[in-house]
Amino acid sequence: MGKPLLQFNDCGIYCAAGNFYIDPWKPVDDAVITHAHSDHARWGNKRYLAHHLSREVLKYRLGTDIQLQTVEYGERIQKNGVTISFHPAGHIIGSAQVRVEHKGEVWVVSGDYKLEDDGLSTPFEPVKCHTFISECTFGMPVYKWKDPSLVHQDINDWWRLNASEGRATVIAGYSLGKAQRIMHHLDLSIGNIFLHGVIANTHEALERNGIKLPAATRITPEVSKDEFKTGIIICPPSALGSPWIKRFQPFAFGYCSGWMALRGAKRRMAADRGFVLSDHADWDGLIKAIDATGCECVCLTHGYTASFSRYLSERGYNAHEAHTYYGGDEATEEDELPVEVLNEQGGVIGGTSNESEEVL
Amino acid sequence: MRDFAQLFASLDETNKTNAKINVLKDYFISVPAEDKIHTLALFTGRKPKRQINATLVKTWAIELANIPQWLFEESYQVVGDLGETIALLLPDGESTHGKSLAEFIREMNDLNTLTENEKKIWLIDSWTSMTRQERFVFNKILTGSFRVGVSQSLIVKALSEISGLNPAVITHRIMGNWDPATFSFHDLLQEEDGSDDASRPYPFCLAYAIQETSDKSKSAEEIAQDLGDTIEWQAEWKWDGIRAQVIHRKGEIFIWTRGEELATEKFPELHDFILSLPDGTVLDGEAICFAENKPLPFNVLQTRIGRKNLSKKILAESPMAFIAYDCLEFAGDDIRSMPFKHRRSVLEKLHQINPHQDTFQLSAIVQFDTWQELFDLRLQSRENHAEGFMLKKLDSIYQTGRKRGDWWKWKVDPLSVDAVMIYAQKGHGRRADLYTDYTFAVWDGDKLVPFAKAYSGLTDKEIKQVDYFVKRNTLEKFGPVRTVKPELVFEIGFEGINRSTRHKSGIALRFPRILRWRQDKKIEEADTLETLRAML
Ligand SMILES: [Zn+2]
Ligand SMILES: [Zn+2]
Questions:
Q1: B461 by DSSP, 3-state: which?
Q2: Chain B contacts of A326, Cβ < 8 Å?
Q3: Among A119, B209, B237, B429, which residue's Cβ finds the most Cβ atoms within 10 Å?
């Protein structure tokens, strides 16, 4: 047997045959990007390949001068005899699973994904493969999402109640993905939408990319405080506890994340309301997605990799844990958060690289 | 049960005090009387006795959830709460049972008459007839781990607003030895106290701390500025025992600890002196191990408390005494609203005439004229086997709960060392998915030896950063515990230190806690075992 088609090394998920990386965490020459979240699309690569709908957000986040090529779902790109194609992952707008084919062998890197149609992202499509590199952020059976339409209804009911009592509604979710998903399902007869600067930037970038989003106002000192009373303010989780949030007083604070499924996590956020809304697959979703690929081999990234690989092994899969530097935490997908953690932690990243060159 | 589960959910959905009070009021006004008193019992820590052991509950839940046992255990590690884990793992259900909270509690109490198989059928029927939210509170009650996220004072406030009674009166009435099966909600909120519970203690008056860490130390001048003239104050040593109330009423005696635990049987040495008090007496003080006229270290008491049976050996090694410092009831009258100096003189008289002077100690008054004098004396706290001073205003009434102004505790600086984190474990409750419980080590030659476990003291942001570090720097996993790369240094504070044969390090700390994260320090700069030994 020769080398595996994809392997995890110091820099990321590497394809030796095609000499490119998928979602590298250290700067490389050729980076294939599943989606624009900061733990997957990092700064400093020479060339980027991504989906059309990631274009403007990538430029906004990584610089307008990056060398970026974009493609459509299903389009086939050749690199040294290796075929690369992008397939909908349903995670956020422009998110993709990356399919890699070489000499009849097919591998798929899932990036992040969910199975539910959120109304904005192109819905997930299973892709047949021999080996599937899957995320498992919520790979524990305690995570089972309820129908998202019920969650959106809860959010609207809560907003309506706050507005009727003259209290601003502040809701947090990470800026790329969750924020747009929340606003897409809001009942605009209740009031207006206001955006934190970071979210407004992302909003504008997506609009430049041709995405239609509801009308929303960027929060600036000029916006009158009275307008907030019946409005809904969408902010990144990091805004909680910052002086910025004080201007909305009195307000109720809600947090949207899959982690809100656990009472402990909700308490930790000190949120009035925790809405269980995730852009990742839940336990049943992960199993369904993996089964649908028809794969023999699964490599797991993000989250509960050890438990989930054990479970899949018991179900007859050849399953492994892969050590990566991907989120594993919805909160760290928030664009500015990982940077902050990394800076303060100094040499943590790359410091203990005993998992480098792990062969699958 | 639906109302109760909804109450729990609604309380969970807000962090605002007033909203919580309104939710409680709406609930207490709308549910049947029987549910009211059961709710109050649950909210004040009066749980029904556990009738099915946790292992059986777990086994049946695993069966119904249809997952491997190890996956159940790991899920439990993630969630940190058994009742919640089970509620999340069982297949989704609808609420079809139609039973009230009181009915379910009655069924739980009757479980001891059922065979194991009947219990199983009952439990599975109950689970499958409930929603997730109902299942969660049901599991918590069933496993005896029900805790509610609202403080007792909020409940008291809601009841006070419903009934018009003073909150202090309600706080007092809901204490003691009552059983929801016989105590009625109606009597509780009547104008006149309808209870004839001889055991009922008074709510403890609690002190505020003057300072908490070594870097916020206050000078004598600052104390003078805050508290005023020394003549208005009485100082006593702050004893390191168990805060307790002793009661002699209607020929019966009761000892209550500060945690509202009835501990009469745990302290047989105190019975004689309490029986010798005039009928209708309640004293506040400290139950403490005491020999040769001085208190013994706290770990002696701790060892004794940990034992199920009080053997002759234990009784001989850890004799008890009660250091009394207040009198709350005399000749059957509640005297809490009399000034402290008056209550003190009553206490002194009771002490004088009591034949059991060995077990009935009077908390000595520390004489001082200036705050500077007291400041200097405080530095001798440890030689006096005390943790510092209690300062009490001479004209103060005995307050209900923690009220600012009349009682202060002025502790000595906590002891501290710099230590390296070497193990981490996930927290529980609100920190269920983060590594929050750490084990710390100091140097012994070129080895790091663990000497303390601590979890509190970091900010939420710091906890996230440490959690981030732990997840990426794990060297080994042993079940829930991760061995991490020794890299982070923390300053660990503690209240006391003792020799221990059970610990690898040969020492045991009392109340260790994290004072701060020393990001400025390298692990080489952490303290040594020798430094700790020098503190013994
Ligand atoms: Zn993502
Ligand atoms: Zn990710």
A1: helix
A2: none
A3: B237
**Burial label, A2 (beta-carbon count in 10 A; 0-12, 13-18, 19+):** exposed
Q: Does 3.40.50.1370 match the CATH number of domain A7-143+279-326? A: no
Position A333 scores a pLDDT of: 43
Interface contact A307, partner B, CB < 8 A: yes
B189 CB-near residues (< 8 Å, 6+ apart): B159, B162, B163, B165, B170
- Taking alpha carbons only, the member of A110, A88, A148, A96 closest to residue A6 is A110
Tell whether A316 lies on the interface with B, counting CB pairs under 8 A: no
Nearest CB neighbour to B15, from listed A270, A331, A332? A270
For residues B140 and B146, the answer to whether their CB atoms sit within 8 Å is yes
Using DSSP's 3-state secondary structure scheme, residue B239 falls into strand
- Residues facing residue A234 across a β-bridge: A171, A195
CB A11 within 8 A of CB A28: yes
CATH code of the region B205-411: 3.30.470.30
> What value, to the nearest 5°, has the Cα angle with vertex B196 and ends B192 and B197?
120
* Those residues with Cβ within 8 angstroms of residue A318's Cβ, 6 or more apart along the chain or in another chain: A296, A297, A298
| Better-scored residue on pLDDT, B137 or B426 | B137
Is residue A142 pLDDT above 90, yes or no? yes
Cα-Cα-Cα-Cα torsion B412, B418, B419, B425, nearest 10 degrees, comes to 60
Query: Which single residue is written with the structure tokens 């092994």?
Result: A313
H or E stretch including B105? helix B101-109
Per-residue pLDDT band at A267 (split at 50, 70, 90): low
Query: Which pLDDT belongs to residue A331?
Result: 40
Complex ipTM: 0.88
CATH number of A148-275: 3.40.50.10890
**B2-142: which CATH topology?**
DNA ligase i, domain 1 (1.10.3260)
Count the neighbouring beta carbons within 10 Å of the beta carbon of residue A353. Answer: 11
Hey, what long-range contacts does B135-139 have (CB within 8 A, 24 or more apart)? B135/B86, B135/B87, B135/B90, B135/B93, B136/B5, B136/B8, B136/B83, B136/B84, B136/B87, B137/B1, B137/B4, B137/B5, B137/B8, B137/B83, B138/B1, B138/B5, B138/B83, B138/B104, B139/B57, B139/B82, B139/B83, B139/B84, B139/B86, B139/B87
Among B302, B392, B301, smallest CA distance to B342 is for B392
* CB-closest option in B80, B84, B468 to A345: B468
pTM score, whole prediction? 0.71
Collect contacts of A198-202 with beta carbons under 8 A, ≥24 apart: A198/A235, A198/A236, A198/A335, A198/A336, A199/A175, A199/A234, A199/A235, A199/A236, A201/A60, A201/A175, A202/A57, A202/A60, A202/A175, A202/A176
- CATH number for the domain whose boundaries are B415-534: 2.40.50.140
What's the rounded Cα separation, in Å, for the pair B344 and B396?
11
Residues with Cβ–ion distance below 5 A, ligand 2: A 112, 326-327
Interface of A with B in 331-360 (CB under 8 A): 331-332, 341, 344-345, 348-349, 351-352
User: Is residue B313 within a helix (H) or strand (E), and if so which, with residue range?
Assistant: helix B312-317
CB B256 within 8 A of CB B245: yes
